Amino acid sequence: MLRLWSLQHRLSPLQCRTIRTTAAARAAAAATKEAPVDSQWTANSVRTGLIARKRGMTAMWDDHGARYPVTVLQLENCQVTANVKTVRDDGSEYHAVQVAASDRPEKTTTKPMLGHFKKAGVPPKRVVKEFPVTPDAHVPVGTTLSAIHFVPGQYVDVIANSIGKGYQGVMKRWNFKGLRASHGVSVSHRSAGATGAHQDPGRVWPGKKMAGRMGGKRITTQNLAVVRVDSALDLVFVRGCVPGIDDAQVMVRDAKKKVTDAAQHNYAKGLFEKILPKGLDSLPFPAGTKELAKTLPPIIAAPTLRRSPFLPRE
Amino acid sequence: MSLSLLRRFARSMSTAAPSYPFSKLAVIPPAPATPPPAPLLKGKGLMAHLSDTLPSPDKLKLLKTYFSKRHPLRILPGSVLSVTMGHAPTQFTGVLLSVRRRGIDTSILLRNVVNRLGVEMQVFVASPHVKDIKILQRAGGGTGQGKVGKRMRRAKLFYLRDSPEKMSAISAGLRG
Fold it and tell me: Taking residues A120-129, what's their average pLDDT?
């Protein structure tokens, strides 16, 4: 099986974003060249994510006829606005790609942001987010990212603000059982009940689960399979649910557990067949751009790899 | 090997359609002929567009005629349908209790009494297992007299779960 990433010269471990460098390694890092223009994905690279809008949900059927729910995410002129490199006090480096999406009118954009977008050469945007990457995964500023960035069959993490539920009681917010419906319970059927012990400790522990505002927080849904990619409409179909309302801005990145970490661990162990999820040969690197999308088919779907659930197991 | 070299190599291998170098097992469905209109790229009318493009043509015909909201040939609740499926039970006949319209996710609820046991089945119309849907008796839209069955005054006939006599009335109309 052709391993596109293994043919590339292997990057040294000090280019991994989590390792703090020593003085000697810092000197070595200064000596190494920058990543080549036409770079390849490696098992130790972490590439950028995208910003999309959650458009809604629908259902699809796989080759065996099993139904599964899908969420439709659409990229709305998602462009790279900056490549961030910060050197910490101890000498280690933080690298990130700043991505912006959803054009907004100039008259509603603040002057500082207008200047920032003008420097990047992109129209003003509504949302600007940053994705930590390895140093080889920087993308030229101004590049328009495409849905082709994700490969059908891979897993992604989707991050968005969950739907706000307002001030909610303890039964909805923390799944408390409440009290009995009858048998003498007075006026406290849905209450929390006791909130602590007695004189020891004589107070309520901080963090006690109580009623309060629920929802409207940043939530990450991990390991959602990408089932279909449409580069003409810039759609990414992911299997399962995604936090937030329809048309909410979501961040989509390669799954930390099933793609990024699995690749690093399996490469270190030498299990080259398990580096990427089944069926995948490589990932667009440093990013899937609109130019790359023009050379590839417009619609790509994931294969059905599982056995048929309608046939009994032997 | 650089990505551009690989692209050239891949293109030389393929005959007609461009190949996909990132996954050999990926399925490449046929691309639509016309490029999408501009409002779709902003998300306006996107889900409706997907409802029209994702199902296969025969399923889309089913959804747009029999299970649409206003088509003259639409199946009204109270009709008796017989569905042939690829998985068990291969054939199920029942009274249509409700049509849940969600585009490609449209489903129907059929109720029957089998061996003195009430059985309901939810059938997803766009499922590849659904081979055929036969209409045994249509519920009347206007007067509900003559050949067609009685007109139901509800969109969802869940009350039939509690009244076996009304269920028998519908089946009697079917036999007669």
Answer: 98
pLDDT, averaged across chain B? 88
B87 and B151, same domain (yes or no):
yes
In a domain, B136, yes or no: yes
Binary contact (A65, B17; C-beta < 8 A): no
Among residues A4, A15, A85, A3, the alpha carbon closest in space to that of A46 is found at A15
Q: Which of B22, B34, B41, B130 best probes binding to A when mutated, by most A CB atoms within 10 angstroms?
A: B22
- Closest residue of chain A to B55, computed from CA coordinates: A60
Residues B105 and B152 in one domain: yes
Q: Which domain covers residue B150, as residue numbers? A: 53-172
CA dihedral A160, A166, A170, A171 (to 10 degrees): -80
Segment A146-173, tens digit of pLDDT: 999 999 999 999 999 999 999 999 999 9
- How many degrees, rounded to 5, is the angle at CA A26 between CA A25 and CA A31? 95
Asked if the structure places residue B46 within a domain, the reply is: no
Q: Do B22 and B105 sit in the same domain of this protein?
A: no
pLDDT digits (tens, 9 = 90+) for A174-221: 999 999 999 999 999 999 999 999 999 999 999 999 999 999 999 999
Tokens found for residue A149: 């960035």
Q: Which domains does chain A have, with CATH numbers?
A: 24-166+211-296 (2.40.30.10)
Q: Is the dihedral of CA A7, A9, A14, A15 positive or negative?
A: negative
Residue B42 lies in a domain: no
Give the pLDDT confidence of B78-136 residue by residue, as tens digits: 999 999 999 888 999 999 999 999 999 999 999 999 999 999 999 999 999 999 999 99
Nearest-CA distance B153 → chain A (Å):
30
Instruction: Report ipTM (2 d.p.).
Output: 0.86
Which among B28, B46, B51 is the nearest to A300, CB-wise? B28
Average pLDDT score over chain A: 91
Question: Is B44 among the domain residues?
Answer: no
Contact (CB<8Å) A67/B124: yes
Q: Tell me whether the omega of the peptide bond preceding residue A112 falls within 30 degrees of 0, making it cis.
A: no
pTM: 0.86
CA distance A174 to A187: 20
- Say yes or no: B91 and B150 in one domain: yes
- Return the CATH number at B66: 2.30.30.790
CB contact under 8 A, A281 and B129: no
Residues B87 and B164 in one domain: yes
Domain count, chain B: 2
pLDDT digits (tens, 9 = 90+) for B25-37: 999 999 998 999 9
Alpha-carbon gap, residue A77 to A122, rounded angstroms: 10
